[in-house]
Amino acid sequence: FAKPHQRYLYLSILFNILYSVLNIFSVATMLPILGLMFGTMERVDTSVAPSYSGNIGDYFNYLKDLAYYSIQRSMDQYGAVQVLAVLCAITAGAFLLRNIFRYLGAFLLVNYRVKITRDLRSAMYTKFLNLPVSFFTEQRKGDMMSRISNDIGAVDNGIMGSLVDVVNSPFMILTSLVTLFFLSPELTFFSLLVFPVMGWIISVVGKSLKRQATSAQEELGNLFSLVDETLKSSKIIKIFNADRILTNRFEKTTQRWQNFAIGMSRRRELASPMSEFLGSVTILLITWFAGVQIITEKSMDPETFLVFIAIFFQILDPAKKLSNAISSIQGGMASLDRVSEVLDYDLKVGESASPIDPKGFHESIIFDKVGFSYNPDGGRTVLEDFNLTVYKGMTVALVGQSGSGKTTVANLLTRFYDVTSGALLLDGINIKELDLKKYRDLIGMVTQESVLFNDTVYNNILMGKQDATQEQVYQAAKIANAHEFIMGLSEGYHTNIGDDGGKLSGGQKQRVSIARAVLKNPPIMILDEATSALDTESERMVQLALENMMENRTSLIIAHRLSTIQKADLILVMDQGRIVEQGTHSVLYSQNGMYRKLVDLQNFG
Ligand code: ADP
Ligand code: MG
Questions:
Q1: For a tag on the chain, would you pick the N or C end, based on fewer CB atoms within 10 A?
Q2: Which residue numbers delimit the ABC transmembrane type-1 domain (predicted)?
Q3: Dihedral of the CA atoms 514, 515, 519, 525 (nearest 10)?
């Protein structure tokens, strides 16, 4: 995800290097300023210009001598106060430039961060759209929601938010260390002691921090699932007075989340005080060592010591930030794992390498010895030796008791699931070989629960065919027996229908779904209990709509009310995943078998 935006990172690193170098420069100019103030400057010999010995170790001293020499000469010429003013002005300029670079570096990094986070979120959303149906029966929706919001948020905060420090701190530390080394190798040795200790602490704390973060994010996922369920089922919760049970469950989940979140923060908050303490210890070590040198041997200028300490303080801050960043990243990593779990889900399982374009539906759909189980590793077989040939233009009905496998047949035809054994052929080609999107273009579906989106009626219908004209949308609504009631809504076609179409009645929702399917105009139509959730009055309206729609189409009707399927060309009676009877209504009814029993049962009911 970083790749397309890499240039932001590289540029930012460049600016951060410039920033670090200027930072050292601006601190180094303090050296002669202090020298001026303390009067130690006088010791420089102004009669001969300093020369470079050629030894790399002396280079810094040479620069220092050269600077002192030039300053000394200027002082003789213009006076100490003026030189001090100029030096301060130069330092101020360096500080200004340094902070401009800092801003540029941070600004570029923000771009990098936001763009990656956005891409990550888009990728996850696209993945959601393409994941197979089986994924969503295994995973809870709330947890998925939590991943796309909370976990990506945590990645953004934890990893991307720490990027500024990760990019900047090493350069700050490095340039400072190099300078320190030139100032005083012995003192630098003491300052280095702090790093391995700090590194060890960070790695120990980081590991357990990541564990806690993973658990915390998982609990957050549970929380979202619970909220998702609660919001969806408010009526049921009220009528069962289930609020106490749910509150309890919510409390328990938040309690567990709280424990992990505290555990995580406790570890993260350790980073700062520990690195600060280590820093202070180091400063005291340095002060002690330098103090002894200055007092007893006078081998060190006081201003060198002051600048050394000043630069060392400059290391402490980035070091602290770096250790904080590393622990934040550990937390972010836990979330990144959860995000990757979804992003890395392999969609290509069972997909043909070179999918065929079906180019319409011309002859037949054949279920050839189809067997199916929702859980192929040892699960119960739901369909067994299911054979069916549907020729173009036929209306085939599936009947049978609840749980006999009717919806499963529809699930296989739509390729929501793939057959476990046998094959499903469209015009003689195994549907696994076909381009999935183009294949699904051939199929329309209306189910018991109409699924509508929180949008206008118009846009809900338009989903059937996104480039349809207004005329076509109206036409579809008329065929679906919906045009009249839609016109009667407060804002006609542009009325918002609420979440899940909550502002419409069951029959109205169903007719909008049918209009949507009509607009798509697919050659194959599946109706799964499309009228069973309706009262008799709206059922009649919907039934008419369905009959309009099924004209000139190949249809698979799954029906609970047997009165609706008497005109079907072929009726299959299913029992426990097998076809037990088949034929037309009159033939089956006269057979005195299961079909007759089902019909008679309903007529008495
Ligand atoms: P029908 O539509 O005839 O009422 P289904 O085809 O929905 O029956 O279900 C057939 C069987 O498959 C039932 O026993 C049901 O428990 C099982 N089943 C349905 N969906 C799933 C699923 N997603 N995972 C596991 N088992 C399922
Ligand atoms: Mg069903």
A1: C
A2: 11-331
A3: 10
